[in-house]
Amino acid sequence: MPGFTQLRAIAAPLEGRNIDTDQIIPARFLKKDRDALYKTYLFHDLRFDEDAKPRADFVLNKPAFNNAQILVADDNFGCGSSREGAVYCLSDFGIRAILAPSFGDIFFNNCLKNGLLPIKLEAKTVERIRQALTQQVQTNAANCEISIDLASCTLQAPGLSEVLTFTLDPFWHECLLKGVDELTLTLGYEKDIKSFEQQHYRTRPWLAALK
Amino acid sequence: MTPSTPQLPRTLFEKIWDQHLVLPRVAGPSLVYIDRHILHEGSFHAFKDLRARGLSIRNPKQIFGVADHYVPTTSRDPQDAVTQEIKEVILKFDDNMKWSGAHYFSIKDAQQGIVHVVGPEQGISLPGSIITCSDSHTSTHGAMGAIAFGVGQSESTHIMATQTLWQTKPLQMRVELQGKPADGVSGKDIILAVIAKLGVAGAVGHAVEYAGTALQWLSLDERLTMCNMTIEAGARSGVIAADDLVFDYLHGRSFAPQGHAWDQALKEWRLLPSDNGCHFDRQLSLNVAELAPRLTWGTSPDSSIAIDEVIPDPAQLSDPHARQAALAALAYMGLTPGARANTIKIDRVFIGSCTNSRLSDLRIAAKILRGQRAVVPGLVVAGSMLVKKAAEAEGLDKVFKAAGLEWREPGCSMCVGINGDLAAANERVASTSNRNFIGRQGPGVRTHLVSPAMAAAAAITGYFTDVRTLLGQK
């Protein structure tokens, strides 16, 4: 997994609370292997109509935002189903960071495993950024970009007069920054797992009592 | 968060958590041991990753595969999958499970079913254990007194390879349920009321524990329903302290400990309930005696009302975002504010899913439907082959068929629709499942979440109907 250091990219404002992973990728696409088409499943039923024509009013179909690499969403983004396909299609579309007041717990973790940076910010702040991005388009201004520096956990965005600091747990911060593969990291703790297991099954033998 | 000091009073969750810390860390995620991990057909991404890394399953005896999401409900033959693509996913799971060396309940297995029905039924889900599955409704198993939560594909790969997971300890929430529910009011109605009170994001970052006097009136099936839908309030897990109801249920089940190991386990399990004076970050209480049967009216599980209420008016909402969301939900659902719930006409019923497909769910639905005709088409899908067999032994299948409903083979079916069991656009479904999201049961389909009794009542009258009025006639 490549590390995430800095990103300066177009950000798209996505309105609506509780956008569930069924909206991000409808279940009928989950049987697909992750191939070149995967990015087309992103927000499929919001992005395309019944005849597979792009819906002009959907934010990622607007010329200013169709190359967005950052989403600015609302509360509880990615709630619902645990499907990691939601993160795969966001990633494959080119999204590398999502700003929201809160995320679905499983979705948040799935992002971290795929090098997609989820940033939690105050609801008021996120709303201000969304409004500013929407305004930028209405006035044909060019500034729809957000700059993120993960090392210092700071970002600059339209609508904000100052550089904003965000927090991310130090463990995930380091994993994302250095592109640490978590599984490789854990395999290095095999001795600890083994010794835990011995103690666990000595004190709770019924948990090992499997056919 | 610090691992709790053993001397301090701890919650049930904290006791189990502390027993599973491989590498405790003061802040952020700790490395946590996973006792049992369950997979379904959607695991092909995780297997592909595992194989590509040249890894194998570390502890195959602790891994269980159950075919449920993609399987046809018309037969037990993958050849009957509605598309070639779906068939291939089922067959790929067969291959992966064979390769894994793990326990496998295939579509042809006599104990196959929905993962969250099979886990408790087989004694895989034990009190005091940590259980994961690549499905958000894994919270179900919390009703067995376990920490149980859904994981993604990458996390699934990680567990298969290491039997552990990096997890941050969630905040603790207690939901106190008081009183005795009225006849016709079930665990489903209670959890819909809890979610309505909390909101769909209300419990994000929390582990929920249910407690209170109401629990003594609820069956184990109802407790499973409640923990199942805890994820719909944003919490990754819901738990209920295991008691004799759970112990009696588990005793003698296939994967439950036997003999001396059982006695040892039981002694330990009785020590697990939350200590007096333990700390909860949040508390909520609800008098379930005041509840009526409920139904959802919107496109998120927190938008529910009692059967004797009217569709709420978005104009009454002061928050513009909430108003906008409610208007959009009503437009999608084709409903008008102020309409009485019992004037909403349905096109189809679905009785099934990991939420409501257990024997007592089928019994109550059959009780309402006995000797009646459904005026709409519908599916009844038992939660497992064992539930199906037990239901047939009681003649419940005949009741459903005589009512004009289809009696299908176990699987997730119309809850998620991946196997092709879907409704048509604009159809309105009374569904015992767990999610009323836009398009969940097919593009344009309008899903109303209800209890099995309420689904059966709606099937007979064609409208949402207060099942208490029908129960009075029985």
In brief:
The complex is a heterodimer of chains A (211) and B (474). Chain A is of the alpha/beta class and 211 residues long.
The helix/strand order of chain A is: EHHEHEHEHEEEHHH
Portion of residues in beta strands of chain B equals 15-25%
The total number of structural domains of chain A is 2
**Mind describing the biggest β-sheet of chain A?**
7 strands, mixed
The CATH architecture of the largest domain in chain A is Alpha-Beta Barrel
Which range best describes the helical content of chain B: under 10%, 10-25%, 25-40%, 40-55%, 55-70% or over 70%?
A: 25-40%
Would you kindly provide a written description of the structure presented here, covering whatever features stand out?
- The complex is a heterodimer of chains A (211) and B (474).
- With 211 residues, chain A is of the alpha/beta class.
- Helices cover 34% and strands 14% of the residues of chain A.
- Chain B has 474 residues and is α/β, with parallel strands linked by helices.
- Chain B is 31% helix and 16% strand.
- Chain B has a 5-stranded parallel beta sheet with strand order 5-4-3-6-7, sandwiched between helices. A 5-stranded parallel beta sheet of chain B has the order 17-16-15-18-19.
- In chain B, helix 3 (84-100) links the parallel strand 4 (63-66) and strand 5 (103-105).
- The radius of gyration of chain B is 22 Å and the shape is globular.
- Chain B starts with 11 loop residues before the first helix and ends with a helix.
